[in-house]
Amino acid sequence: MANLTRLSFSIEWSLEKKLEDLVRRAGYNNRSEYIRDLIRDRLVEEEWSGEDEAVGTITLVYDHHARGVAEKLTDLQHHHHDVVLAATHVHLDAKLCAEVVICRGRPAAIRAIADRLRQQKGVLHGTLSMSSTGAHLVG
Ligand code: NI
Q1: Average pLDDT of the chain, as a whole number
Q2: Which residues sit opposite 125 in a β-bridge?
Q3: For residue 133, pLDDT beyond 90
Q4: Choosing a second label site near 103 at 20 to 30 A (CA), which of 17, 21, 35, 49?
Q5: How far is the CA of 23 from the centre of ligand 1 (A)?
Q6: How far is the CA of 17 from the centre of ligand 1 (A)?
Q7: Ligand 1 center to residue 125 CA distance, Å?
Q8: What is the distance in A from the centroid of ligand 1 to the CA of 63?
Q9: For the structural domain made of 54-132, what CATH number should be given?
C-alpha cells in the first residue's frame, strides 16, 4: 500500500482490550486495517450528513394483498425518477414482497423518499442504508 504513515497514540488499557475484541470479532487481520475502515466509515457519515450527493438503498417488505400498495410504491418511485436509479422486486412468498430501491441524490431527498415509501399502508418494514458516492474517499 502506497503512502503509508505510522501513527502512535494513547488509549486506556481497558479500551485497548475492547478494540482487540472488535477487531477479532469483525475478522480483521490487524488493528491498522480495522482503524482505517473506522475512519472511512466516519468520513462516509460526515459526507452524507452534508449537502453532497449520496447513494441510498431502501429495502421494503410489504404485503401485496394490501389494497393499492404495489401501485402506490411504483407511483412514488416514478414521481422521484430523478433520484430513483433502479428497483428490484422479489416475491418472498405467496403474500409478501421485498423491494430494493437504489437512489442517488441529496441525502435529504433520499431520506424523504424512503420515509414516504415506508409510510404506505401494507409496508411492514423499511430500512434505508446510506453510503457515499466515493468521491471523497479516493486519493
Ligand atoms: Ni411480489
Answers
A1: 91
A2: 61
A3: no
A4: 35
A5: 39
A6: 47
A7: 15
A8: 8
A9: 3.30.70.1150
Position of cell 430500512?
127
At residue 107, φ and ψ (nearest 5 deg) are -55, -40
Q: How far is the CA of 100 from the centre of ligand 1 (A)?
A: 12
Instruction: Give 73 Cα–ligand 1 centroid separation in angstroms.
Output: 12
* DSSP states along 16-79: HHHHHHHHHHTT-SSHHHHHHHHHHHHHHHHHHHTTS-EEEEEEEEEETTSTTHHHHHHHHHHH
Give the three-state DSSP class for 110: helix
Q: Cβ of 31: how many Cβ atoms within 10 Å?
A: 13
> 66-81, pLDDT tens digit by residue?
999 999 999 999 999 9
Distance 119 CA to ligand 1 centre (A): 18
**Cα 42 to middle of ligand 1, angstroms:** 36
CATH 3.30.70.1150, the chain: domain bounds: 54-132
What class, spelled out in words, does domain 13-49 have in CATH? mainly alpha
- Dig out the grid coordinates for 27 from the structure: 475478522
